[in-house]
Amino acid sequence: xxxxxxxxxxxxxxxxxxxxxxxxxxxxxxxxxxxxxxxxxxxxxxxxxxxxxxxxxxxxxxxxxxxxxxxxxxxxxxxxxxxxxxxxxxxxxxxxxxxxxxxxxx
Length: 106
Prior knowledge:
The chain is built from three helices and no strands. It is mainly α.
C-alpha cells in the first residue's frame, strides 16, 4: 500500500487560489468597515427613540450599543448602503498600486 501522491500545484492555479483568498479577505474587511460605520449611524438613530424603548435609562445605556451593532451587521448582510463594494475596490487598488477609478491616471 502506498501513501498519498504528492502532485505539484501548478503555479497559475496556486496564484489564482491565493488571489481568491485575498479577495475574500478584502471583501470581509470592507464589510466590517461598513458595519462599523452603520453601527455609529444606527446608534445615533436609536438615541432618538428615548429610554422607554429599552425599558428605562439604565437599560438603554446598556443595550443600545449591542442592538445598534446587531442591526448594523444585519443591514450589511442584506446589502447595506453599498459602501463595502467601494471600500473593497479602493483596497484592491491600493494593494495592486493601480487607480481605483477606471480611466483615471495615478
